[in-house]
Amino acid sequence: MSYLAFSLLLLLGSAGAGLVGALTGLGGGVVLVPLLTLFFGVDLKLALGASLVSVIATSSGAAAAYVREGFTNLRVGMFLEVATTAGALAGATLTALLPHRVVAGIFGLVLLHAAYTGLRDLDRDARVQEGPSDPLALRLRLEGTYPGPGGAIPYRVHRVLPGFLLMGLAGLLSGLLGIGSGAVKVLAMDRIMGLPYKVSTTTSNFMIGVTAAAGAGVYLRHGYIHPDLAFPVVLGVLAGALLGARILPGARVRGLRLLFAAVIALLGLEMVAQGLGG
Asked: Over the stretch 30-85, which tens digit does the pLDDT of each residue have?
């Protein structure tokens, strides 16, 4: 296969990964790493490096559109980025010390359980979150609104500190495994903090670029980011992310939850396979 044909196929595949990443808040790396390693035969470490770069592109491409549409909660994202960035730096530092198989296996089991609960509660977003906001959320003014068919819909923010701690774990996994860990971010905001699903996914897209950038420097220093591979990946993921940003405002929450559950289930199986040495 010629370099031009390889780059074009890589561009198209990356565009699909960016579309899924933007719609689910997971980042394009969730689809991109298996695509590069299994279909294109790319070395795993180079695929992880390209994945981190693509996550930054997904965040840059979709975040601006989501902020303009009024879905992203900037205060929540900037507050939680403190935990994810610190976790990513710690994870990248611990890469040479901790066995990836154990971490990947545990992470995979957690994601499979999350996929199961997501399918069980497909219509949870239709139910109003009960109870007042967390006092810390009120102090930090984390409450907000998001666009709905009849105008702006207000929402409350619950359990801020547990969500913050889980974000630290998300950053740690990002640095250890070379992923954006958007699955943990969305789960933390959706399940723990009680944010509406579209707010969770868009805020995750806003955050994952910062988290990935913290770990990407370590990968770049070790030579795991190859320009010839990263360039078509970034262009494709960016195009897919911009398309996803146009689709999401009119998408149904139930369909997004199904897509999210399917993608994290596949990611969970992949992580379990890594844990078992597959």
From this structure: 678 778 877 888 887 788 788 878 777 767 767 777 888 899 999 999 999 899 88
Angle at 136 between CA 62 and CA 78, to 5 degrees: 25
Secondary structure (DSSP) of 169-227: HHHHHHHHHTS--HHHHHHIIIIIS---HHHHHHHHHHHHHHHHHHHHHHHHHTT---H
Calculate helix-pair angle for 74-93, 160-177, nearest 10 degrees. Answer: 40
Our count of domains for the chain comes to 1
Backbone angles phi, psi at 152, to 5 degrees: -70, 135
Per the confidence metrics, is the pTM higher than 0.85? no
Q: pLDDT for 163-201, tens place per residue?
A: 999 998 888 877 776 666 677 788 889 888 989 988 998
Domain limits at 97?
3-275
